[in-house]
Specification:
alpha/beta, Rossmann fold, 3 domains, six-stranded parallel sheet, 21 helices, 18 strands, about 40% helix, globular
Length: about 550
Amino acid sequence: MHGGQLVARALRAEGVDTIFALTGGHILPILDGCVLEGIRIVDVRHEQTAVHAAEAYGRLTGKLGVAVVTAGPGVTDAITGMASAHYSSTPLLLLGGRHYIRQETMGGLQEMNHPLLFGSITRWAATAWETSKLPLYIATAARHAFSGRGGPVFLDVPLDVQADMVRDDGIQWPEHYRPNVPAMADQATLGRIASMFGEAERPVVFAGGGYRGDKERSLQQLAERIHAPVYLQSTARGSLEYDHPLLGNRTRSSAFAGADLVLGLGVDWDFRTGYGQKINGQAKVIQVDADDTKIGWNRSAHLGIVADPKALVGQLVSLADLIEVDEGGRSFTRELMEEEGGKRAEAEALAANDGSPVFPERFAQEVSAFFGSDSILAVDGGDIVSTTARWLRINEPTTLLDPGPFGTLGTGPPFALAAKILNPDRRVGIIFGDGGFGFNGMEYDTFVRLGLPVIGVIGNDGAWSNIKTIHQMFYPERVVAADLGVRPYHAMVEGLGGYGEFVDDPAEIRPALERAEASGKPALVNVHIAEVPRASSNYAQ
């Protein structure tokens, strides 16, 4: 067997059935190995896409996402995707080609010491120096990728290590090389949590990017038993049904300000949460995370627990009957949900705007109604994505694919690519800002080549709206590099062989999306929306 086949067989043993790649001379044996081992190769137009798609594959399956890129610029093009996966704590393996060992330091084509690039954005980065040990390298990479919350790892494989032949009866194939039981809390800790909830009058539950895949509805069951409001962020979205009466959407700040107890499940007290300082200063915080470095970050944790948050919630459900709640529920929860209803009514009033260009809230309402609660959606943009996200009917985990805290643009097409590959019979959509489309919009060529009818929709205001708002605050008379113009992106998709349509009438958004779906082609509906200044908290904080 050649080294490329060893790599592929080790990946297959890890459960990998698909890799995302952009071809190159330094990775041909690995690609050949995938062919020999029956692993699907999805080829894309930019290495950043390969990594983002591998991240989405991991989120959607719970398995190791894998991207394969060639040496030098192939690897450097992949760095942004790796950084995004790092800050989203997503298990992911990037395999990079590398120059021949025998040409080390001689200035060979695309010679580079790649692992040095990844020190700050991976859990492990190394070079495989010996063909016979390639399965051990893959096992080590997977073990690091799934440690703690999880994260990306990098392995480069010199071309001669890939191409060299070894006897298959001399290979050591690792087995059972990483934990397969989630970390849980002991009974004393569970009892303490139950006691704290029993004493609280205004508890709030908040789950974030470290809380994943709750298809069993454990969190929903817990919330119902203790009658506490729940707020979800990032990969936790979908853990409660989108219309559940205890799910908050627009009132998180009010909940934090009034709470006397907050249960944080896999949360990052970062810019998205006001660094934890929006929580009532007198409130107690229970923080549960698989990554011990997250405990107490920016916000004190009165009870910090290193465990799998989802597994702990499952444990708490069995103890929830011990938590005393008045028969009529908690008045604090009722007040928050009444406020939630009021804010929803305000948003619906804004969405009633029939003007042209389309008002952002109207765009959000129409797009949400079309995609409903059964689609898988990738979001790729700034303000228009933030506006639309509050309307989306996310009804199950992993069906909303967002870029996470790194705020990466360009994730939409690659995330949708992985989703459609894994769910060919399900509606998969992308919600773009016009800025976001410009990064990886060329992947519509990939959709067309592979026959993947992904439906994209752009909220196009012709500007970098999120940044323009801030720029105007800082330097109102010298705003530069902020305007794009309302460009015909739909025509580009048509030119590649897809379906494209331009819309500036709000009443035509839904019909246009229906026509896009009926075309059976990869599609893009380009909606001209009004440029409405909206405050961005990301920079103000």
